[in-house]
Design a protein that fits this description.
By secondary structure, this protein is an alpha/beta fold. The protein has a single domain, classed as Rossmann fold, CATH 3.40.50. Helices cover 41% and strands 14% of the residues.
C-alpha cells in the first residue's frame, strides 16, 4: 500500500500533536518530533500508534541544521519515503516587554527556531523529494505553522513577530520555487490557541475573545489547527499553493 508519510516538528504536544493525530486519522505514517527522547515524546508516539498507522519517534533539535538530512534519512528508513513536512516547532520570547529592552539572546533564539530551522529543514526535505521519482497519486507538500503575528504587531513580543514574519515570507518563496515541481506550500497562521506557550495569558485572551476580539467568541484548540493542517496536507484544497491561512476565528478581519 502506498501511504503518505509526514514529519511534524515540535509534535510531542500542542498544535504539533494535534496535527499528528489528525494526519494519522487521514492514514499518514507519522514521525513525531521533539528536541529530546523524553516521556512526553514517547507518550505522543503511543497516542499516534493507537490510530493504527506506522509511527516513529524523531528526537532531534531542529536548530542543528547540519544533521537535518541524517534525521530525514532515519525517518524514511523507519516509516517510508516522506511526502509531507509540517514545520511546527517554535518558541516564544524569553520575556515580554518593551522592544527597546529586547536582548540579543531572545532575538537570536526566535530566529534560530522559528525562521532559520524552518528554512533549512524545508530545503533538506525539498532536495530529497526532487532527487527521486514521486508517485503521482500522492500529494506532496510543506505546511508551515507561523502565527497571526506574522502580520499583526504584538509590541511585547517584537522579536517573535519578526521571526514569524520572516517565516511567512519563506513560505511564499518556497511555494514559488516548488510549484513547478507539483509540491504545494502553505502557511497556517494560528491566532489565539490554548497551548503551553500561551498558558500564562490564555485566560485573558479567552475573555477578550468573548468580548469580541475574535468573531467566534472562543480561543482555538490544538485540534482545530490539526484539522486545518491535515486538510492542507491531504490535498483537500486542490489547485492551491502559497496561501496564508488565517486560523484566527476572524480576529484580523478589518472592522469599524
Amino acid at each position: 500500500m502506498t501511504r503518505q508519510a509526514v514529519l511534524i516538528t515540535g509534535s510531542s504536544r500542542g498544535i504539533g500533536l494535534g496535527a499528528a493525530v489528525a494526519l494519522a486519522q487521514e492514514g499518514f505514517a507519522v514521525a513525531v518530533n521533539g528536541p529530546k527522547d523524553d516521556q512526553e515524546l514517547r507518550d505522543a508516539v503511543e497516542t499516534i500508534r493507537a490510530q493504527g498507522v506506522p509511527v516513529t519517534a524523531a528526537a532531534f533539535d531542529v536548530t542543528d541544521i547540519t544533521n537535518h538530512d541524517t534525521h530525514l534519512q532515519a525517518i524514511e528508513e523507519a516509516i517510508g519515503p516522506l511526502t509531507t513536512l509540517v514545520n511546527n516547532a517554535g518558541v516564544g520570547v524569553l520575556q515580554r516587554g518593551d522592544m527597546l529592552d529586547v536582548g540579543e539572546e531572545s532575538f537570536d533564539r526566535c530566529i534560530a527556531v522559528n525562521t532559520k530551522a524552518m528554512f533549512f529543514l524545508s530545503q533538506a526535505f525539498a532536495k530529497r523529494l526532487l532527487a527521486r521519482a514521486r508517485p503521482s497519486d500522492l500529494f506532496h507538500s510543506i505546511v508551515n505553522v507561523t502565527s497571526s503575528n506574522a502580520v499583526a504587531v504584538a509590541t511585547p513580543r517584537s522579536e517573535y513577530c519578526a521571526s514569524k514574519a520572516a517565516a511567512a515570507m519563506i513560505s511564499k518563496t518556497l511555494a514559488v520555487r516548488l510549484g513547478p515541481e507539483n509540491i504545494a506550500v502553505y502557511d497556517v497562521q494560528p491566532g489565539l490557541i490554548a497551548t503551553d506557550m500561551t498558558a500564562p495569558v490564555i485566560d485573558m485572551y479567552a475573555q477578550k475573545a468573548r468580548d469580541g476580539l475574535t468573531l467566534f467568541p472562543r480561543v482555538g484548540q490544538p485540534e482545530d489547527m490539526g484539522r486545518i493542517i491535515a486538510s492542507l496536507a491531504s490535498g483537500k484544497l486542490p489547485y492551491t499553493t502559497g496561501q496564508a491561512i488565517s486560523a484566527d476565528a476572524g480576529m484580523l478581519v478589518p472592522r469599524f
